[in-house]
Structures are given as C-alpha cells and as structure tokens.
Amino acid sequence: NMIRTATTLGMLDGSGPARTFTTIVLSDTSLLFHAHLITDIEGSTAKLVDSPLWRLAYMSPADGHAALLRLHQFKRLRYEVAGSLQQISLPNRSALDFAEGLAE
Known about the structure:
Blueprint: H1 2-8, E1 12-13, E2 20-21, H2 28-42, H3 61-73, E3 78-82, E4 85-89, H4 95-103
Antiparallel strand pairs: 1-2, 3-4
C-alpha cells in the first residue's frame, strides 16, 4: 500500500483524509544530479526551473527554484534571474558526466 509506505518513511503530514506529502530534503549533490537529469530530459536549461519533472524528487517547481538559488549562493552552479529572464549554467554537460565525476 502506497499510503502505508509513505507513512512509514515519514513522508506524510497531518492525519485522516487531509494528509499531504512533506517536502523531501535532498543533499546538494542529489539536487545537482536531478537538475542535470531534468536538463537532459527537457533538452535545455531554459526549461529546468518550471519543469514538472521536479515532482520526481517530491518537489514542486517552486521548491526547485529555491534549491537552484541556494546552490547558486554556494557556487555549485550559476543561476541568474531578472524578471522573467533566467540563465542557468550547470557544472557538467550531462547527468552522466556529473555522475562520472562523482565516481572519480
């Protein structure tokens, strides 16, 4: 049962029928890998921030935006936003390159 598993893993807030999924906290390395994966799938960093694929990490696109800002603050990637314009530079060309760099 999916609800029982989510409860066991501490992924649900509240009680009764009004329970909601909590935000999962990923490490910076996991977030960077996920950002690379989304970019690989979407084909562009321009689609990264608003991608529904953040849901695969139990995050909303707004959570992804906040994570990207934090990663920029700690110089793990470059993320510049001015109004509706945004520019993102990831540290590697692809998720595979990122993963291979971790294995070295």
